[in-house]
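Example record

One chain of 260 residues, shown exactly as stored in the release files.
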Amino acid sequence: MASLQERCRAAIIGAAAADAAGQPIHWNYNQETLNKILHRYGNPEFIRPSQNPFYDIDTGKQTCYGDQAYAVLKALVLGNGFNKEYLVREMYEILGPASAYETEPVNSYYVDKTTQKLTLPISAPWRNVSIKDFLKKVDDGESETGSDNDIQIDAVTRIAPVVALYAGRKDMLNKVEEMIRVTQNNDIPVAFALAAARILEYYILNGSKPDVIEQVIKDLKNPQRLNPTDLDISMVSHFRKVLDASSMDHTAAAAQFGRN
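Predicted structure tokens for this chain:
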């Protein structure tokens, strides 16, 4: 059995390694194309050269999601714990106008997709919507910097450093929510991130257990639970559907619950 400290480190390093491993085939939405890539290379991890249809960067580098998690980790270290000002600064530095993410084609693309035509893939990392909204709000001097409308997976992909640091503490979910709202100030990604944080915390505190989802469902149904949201019952329903589909082929299950 790994120690608690080892599991904390593994959560952070494992998330970063997985992000880098998948980056060369990130955002391949066509299943037939993806199947051909996997057949050609045998394994999906760390493919060279990049098969990413949107952006082409060196294999081993992080996606925009991994870089967000790195900004969270760096801010936690420099701030000796969660500090919003440190996180805003690191997000802005790592993904902002002085970073490799500052490319005119992508900036223009989000202004008017109907007229702006990109030659894909671009030779730069891809800055996604929530970060663009965040940067604009920082530049405008707003105190609430999170995107009001973006509900994408960013929220879940950057929780590992916060959960690892605060696992077992009553303020863990508070810290996760504060962190999420820095770039995604919307209740939907917050609810998903809090559910994911509960799962990750359970693994960190207890090691590998087969009943983790059932335990999290129980927690989400508890009237006395910490950080309740109006979407918790919906989360329970989604978890039940996933458990019911656990015997399905992965590709079929992915198609059932969302895009591949």
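Notes: The mean pLDDT is 93.
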